[in-house]
Amino acid sequence: MVRRIGVYSWSMIGAVILILFGGFVLIEGRIIFAPLFIALIVVFVLNPFVSALQHRGVHRLIGAAIAFLGFLAGIVAIGLVVVPSIADQARGFATEFPLLYDRLIDQAVTFGDRFGLDPSLWSYDQILEYLNDPENQDTILSIVFDRLGTLTTGIFEFILVFLLGPVIAFYLLIDLPNVQQRLIELVPERNRAEVAYVGRRLNSAVGGFLRGQLVVAIIVGVMLSVGYWLIDLPFWMLIGMVGGVLNIVPFLGPWVGGILGVAIALTTADFSTAVWAVVVAVVVQQIDNNFVSPSVLRATVRLHPAVTLLVLVLAGAVAGFWGIVIAVPLTAALKIISGYWWRTRILEQTPLDAAEAMFIEPPQRRFWTREIEAVTIPTEDSDGDRDDS
């Protein structure tokens, strides 16, 4: 018993050290992790299709090329349908922005006066006057040059992410079975079946989350756009698509779309339209939370909404935008690994019982039972180190 407690204690210490080291590497080398994360998303999305083609006798190289071409063709088709309308609305928004901004500032000042507050917000003309003042231009240029390095780094990261990410994803798709086999061979033989089993559950849960979140983002964007179109809100498609894209981060899309919808309604229409914009955002949020996400995001781990929000805030404070993007799948992966270890080692549950307790809906249950037959939980007896005297 004492030996077991010692092993568990040192295991926990090692896990904490590993997590801290991983966090340090993640922060210091985050420029590399962004394209890797994009590559993993593409791999998780396209790998089921490539694997299905491989099972039909198609070489993985050809299957990966077909998957990429189909993926790009889908993006181009969506772009041809959506982009022209969004571009027209974006140009209209840019043209009317000064007027919209001044109206929003006037309403904010009026609202503040009712409660005895003085927001002291600048109008659009005051901002232009400040920027055109020669005395201020030197200060502005100084700030710009000070931030030039950061801006250049940001542009470089953007190019690196969206050029290098798909390239990495393509090579990973081609060689993924070999990579998985090599990783399994690094594991001691008596643990290989268990590690392979947990790895497949991890792939199923995290991959299902990433694929599902993309589908949910599209559905939320369409629902917001249709809802704002029904209430005749200006720039309805632009606002809806912004909300849909931001919904890749859980809970964020409908709220941001709702705030933008209310702001546009208050500055271009009337108070009743703003109320209807709130109704649309709330209805979309409820449909997403109660029907869309539970139906689409199957085979994922249970993450309480409060935990998700706290993780998003913490990740944003530590690693910025990419921290927010990677926070939920990383938390899900850590929960799967730590939850499986706790349930099988401490609570002494079977792998199937542990998986069924951790996942929303176990996928392919009949295959799980077949896999578990090869899984054995190492004990002190199996190590051969227990002193029977």
Please explain how this structure is put together.
There is one protein chain. The chain is mostly helical and 389 residues long. It folds into two domains: 30-92 and 125-186, no CATH class; 194-374, no CATH class. The chain contains 14 helices and no strands. The protein is globular and about 70 Å long. The two termini are 15 Å apart.
List keywords for this structure.
389 residues, mainly alpha, 14 helices, disordered C terminus
Quick structural summary:
With 389 residues, the chain is an all-alpha fold.
Distance between the termini: 15 Å
Shape: globular
Q: What kind of sheet is the major sheet?
A: none
**pLDDT averaged residue by residue:** 76
- The succession of helices and strands, N to C, reads HHHHHHHHHHHHHH
By secondary-structure content and strand pairing, the structural class works out as mainly alpha
Radius of gyration: 26 Å
Number of strands: 0
Total helices: the number is 14
- The level of helicity is over 70%
Q: How many independent structural domains?
A: 2
Low-confidence stretches: 380-389
What percentage of the residues does DSSP assign to strands (E)?
A: under 5%
